[in-house]
Amino acid sequence: MPAAKPTLVRTAVIAALVDAVLILVFAAIGRDAHQRADVLTGVFSTAWPFLAGAAIAWLSARIWRAPFAIWPSGVVVWIGTVAGGMLLRAVTGQTVVLAFIIVALISLAILLLGYRAVIALVSRVRRRSGKP
Length: 132
Description:
By secondary structure, the chain is mainly α. The chain has one domain. The protein contains four helices and no strands. It has helices spanning 4-33, 39-61, 70-91, 98-129. It starts with a helix and ends with a helix.
């Protein structure tokens, strides 16, 4: 039984890191699409509200209990990332327009729910084939 705890912690850390990297990818793609300069600092400037929103979602919903589950974990992280990100952007004077909210909802759904869906599919296939 003691070996299960480190595995759960490692799984949660990996999931949190993947979420963070994908949020950074979202910010980088957005900045590139709008041909914005100062790549490194600019990406973090764009991403920090969304990273904070994701962190709040992780903590408030205790995502670490089932970090790769699409429901509810993935959906909570996705909505928390977008809602928290937009709220923080608004209170810090950054742009929040309907078109950006829609793009963020769609893009982050594809990223944050997409990899969880792939993991679920691979797990299902492995279970059916008898592989661990």
